[in-house]
Amino acid sequence: MPIMKIPFLLLFFLWEAESHTASRPNIILVMADDLGIGDPGCYGNKTLRTPNIDRLASGGVKLTQHLAASPLCTPSRAAFMTGRYPVRSGMASWSRTGVFLFTASSGGLPTNEITFAKLLKDQGYSTALIGKWHLGMSCHSKTDFCHHPLHHGFNYFYGISLTNLRDCKPGEGSVFTTGFKRLVFIPLQIIGVTLLTFAALNCLGLLRVPLGIFFSLLFLAALILTLFLGFLHYFRPLNCFMMRNYEIIQQPMSYDNLTQRLTVEAAQFIQRNTETPFLLVLSYLHVHTALFSSKDFAGKSKHGVYGDAVEEMDWSVGQILNLLDELRLANDTLIYFTSDQGAHVEEVSSKGEIHGGSNGIYKGGKANNWEGGIRVPGILRWPRVIQAGQKIDEPTSNMDIFPTVAKLAGAPLPEDRIIDGRDLMPLLEGKSQHSDHEFLFHYCNAYLNAVRWHPQNSTSIWKAFFFTPNFNPVGSNGCFATHVCFCFGSYVTHHDPPLLFDISKDPRERNPLTPATEPRFYEILKVIQEAADRHTQTLPEVPNQFSWDNFLWKPWLQLCCPSSGLSCQCDREKQDKRLSH
Questions:
Q1: Which CATH number applies to 24-164+241-435+541-555: 3.30.420.10, 2.40.50.140, 3.40.720.10, 1.10.3720.10?
Q2: What CATH superfamily classification does 172-238 receive?
């Protein structure tokens, strides 16, 4: 080979290597829980300190109309993982409860669903989920782990299988208060009144009541009380635990330095994979209640315990950004930051403290499809490819991450199913100025609630509501009497014709349009209805993962620490820490 050709060959191979790196970046997907779009500084907050999230935004693209596919945790995360509306996989509920509340439920992300983790793992990526899963655990036995992250494409899992709940932290109240009232307190009151009435009638000689009835009522009251006390005692250890892969390592979980532990696990995973492409999903427990923060952040913000939690999460984001800089991986890493849905505006503690975040100028919040419930932070940074300092106002979805990362990893999209997400890279790279989503469908659980239409060659963004939640108290910004808004029956108001807004001119959704204010009113609604009809025709019947059979607790699916007996308590985190010292 002539000597002169060697430098050209070296340049060619170097160019090939750089091109391959740019097309197959490391990928870090960061998801907050219940963070409002009005919380980060880069989205307008002037009092919460989020310098690291802001640094991420200034170094990349800020999406200002980024939308969760559902305003609730479980269905939103199912859509995020699969790039598909959750109703397609049965991960949207037809009942009041739209998320899993027990680790020993048999419902979860079906085994035939394909996550982006599966696609990237098949392309040689090392994959990890650190933090919250909330997409189920087992199907038929406690060891089949059919819904577990490791069965959905992740090589490594460290975190919680369910979600952070008030019941997981002593002294923070319960999400079951309404259930306790209906199933425990009211029945006990009825039994008590009945016993007193029978006793009085018996004493007065007006009615002879057999002793068996008294004993039966007392037994029933004792049974209800025993079950209630057992639930209070066992719910926390049975549902609030930390896992590493398939093993329980802390039961019940401790909140001590929990964000720090998640951050260390994420950092160690990155350090283990500096020579191979990796996918890291860092799914924070912040800022879902129960709120928590370490001593370094407690009492430091201007927004109480909620602000402390946000600022601790921001610190964690900064640790990951700093590590990427130290390892010289920043230029070859795509980072995405978002929230699974809007802030939970009804979260107020028993002491009257506001434990929910800010949705900025937008109406509503978590569990409803007003903009405050679905418009979430959306930040992407990839220094080698994406120009810094951009702001994109086009409608995008958290489902878009699936086809985006699949294409970047060189993975073909599945051809045997509909993928509702769209590749974001043409928008991010400036090759397209218009979203690929002409229509987006907003579901309240499994009910089609609203449709968004962004016509080609138009600045208008029409949004039509088929029904809206009944806020209570009337005139408030949420459903405070029920803690979240529900999707059917007396909890909603149906609209015929649908309630129509132009989001581009009325993002606060305060002024519904009429035939008098919008000449094309009926024409717009006709196009939207036709799109909704076409969409619903693409929905096959699938098993309902939230059926009562799938949703309820099953003792044979319950996970406990090995050798912990009936207590279901252990702390291998503390034991491992002691051994390391």
A1: 3.40.720.10
A2: Helix hairpin bin (1.10.287.550)
Of 149, 151, 164, 157, nearest to 266 (Cα)?
157
Residue among 134, 147, 288, 437 flagged as catalytic: 134
Mean pLDDT over residues 213-230, rounded?
93
What pTM does this model have?
Answer: 0.93
Q: What are the structure tokens assigned to 166, written together?
A: 């008030």
pLDDT in tens, 121-168: 999 999 999 999 999 999 999 999 999 999 999 999 999 999 999 999
Q: What is the 3-state secondary structure (H, E, C) of 100-156?
A: CCCCCCCCCCCCCCCCHHHHHHHCCCEEEEEEECCCCCCCCCCCCCCCCHHHCCCCE
Calculate mean pLDDT across residues 232-253.
95
Number of other residues whose CB lies within 10 A of the CB of residue 271: 11
Task: Determine the Cα angle at 445 with ends 467 and 557, to 5°.
Answer: 160
- The one catalytic residue among 73, 168, 240, 568: 73
Once rounded to an integer, what is the mean pLDDT over residues 455-475?
Answer: 96
28 vs 565, more confident: 28
User: What residue ranges do the domains of the chain occupy?
Assistant: 24-164+241-435+541-555, 172-238
Degrees, nearest 5: CA angle 292-163-406: 115
State residue 29 phi and psi, 5-degree precision: -110, 115
Query: For this structure, is 233 an active site residue?
Result: no
Please say if 134 is a catalytic residue: yes
List of residues 6+ apart from 399 with CB closer than 8 A: 69, 79, 80, 82, 83, 84, 85, 420, 421
Preceding omega of 252 cis (within 30 degrees of 0): yes
Q: What is the mean pLDDT of residues 259-279?
A: 97
Look at the block and give the residue holding tokens 């009910």. 447
* Residue in this structure with the two tokens 């330095």, named with its chain if needed: 257
Q: Are 348 and 370 in contact (CB under 8 A)?
A: no
Three-state secondary-structure class, residue 432: coil
Side chain identity at 239, as an amino acid letter?
N
Report pLDDT for 423: 98
- Asked if 372 and 351 touch (Cβ cutoff 8 Å), the reply is no
